[in-house]
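ARCHIVE CARD
Drawer: 12
Card no.: 0347
Subject: one protein chain, sequence and derived structure
Cross-reference: see card 0346
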Amino acid sequence: EYLYPMMKEEAQFYDEILKAMWGYTSDKLSIPVSQLSKDNIANELAARGVSEELIANFKELLNEGEFARYAPGDKGAAMDKVYTMSASVISKMENSIK
């Protein structure tokens, strides 16, 4: 299925990060995961007083995770970036959501 074992681990990493972000958002906003989209999350976050910058960071994180899963390049750096972004976004959301 995967050409190299590392590719499978990288794919699992991104799958878990994305799953965690969608799950966190679902729980935090009380929206079933099946009804989540980037747009309705952005609307709900805005309605709860979250800054446009943080909403943009959240969308960027989702896009980065989806892109990095399949993109060639320095996987270690991309994984570090996505992990750091996810920790930062969650931390800031915890302090922002009303």
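Annotation on reverse: The chain has four helices and no strands. The CA atoms of residues 17 and 58 lie 12 Å apart.
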